TrEMBL record:
InterPro entries the UniProt entry points to: TAXIMIN_1/2
Residue intervals passing through the bilayer: 12-30, 36-62
Gene responsible for this protein: LOC112280976
Name of the protein: Uncharacterized protein
Lineage: Eukaryota, Viridiplantae, Streptophyta, Embryophyta, Bryophyta
Organism of provenance: Physcomitrium patens (Spreading-leaved earth moss)
Protein keywords: Membrane, Transmembrane, Transmembrane helix
Source species, domain of life: Eukaryota
Length: 78
């Protein structure tokens, strides 16, 4: 997981990104609930395509905390 510039440890970016990661974590909890509901709806729906957009949105919300903290740590130089 090393970057191109060779800096792996960026504690300042991590600390600055923590409040935003907390908000993203709350969004990921909403994403988990959406994912469960959409999965249940996809089982009931005969075509299965109806809930594909909701499932994709839910998965992107679940991955949000990781994306946020990676973005913040990349913004701070070593």
């Amino acid at each position: 997981m090393s970057d191109d510039d060779g800096c792996d440890c960026r504690p300042l970016g991590f600390l600055i990104g923590l409040p935003f990661m907390l908000v993203a974590f709350l969004l990921s909890l909403i994403g988990m609930v959406l994912w469960i509901i959409a999965t249940l709806l996809a089982c009931c729906c005969p075509c299965g395509i109806c809930c594909a957009g909701i499932l994709n949105l839910a998965l992107s919300l679940i991955k949000a905390p990781i994306k946020v903290i990676r973005w913040f740590t990349k913004q701070i130089p070593c």
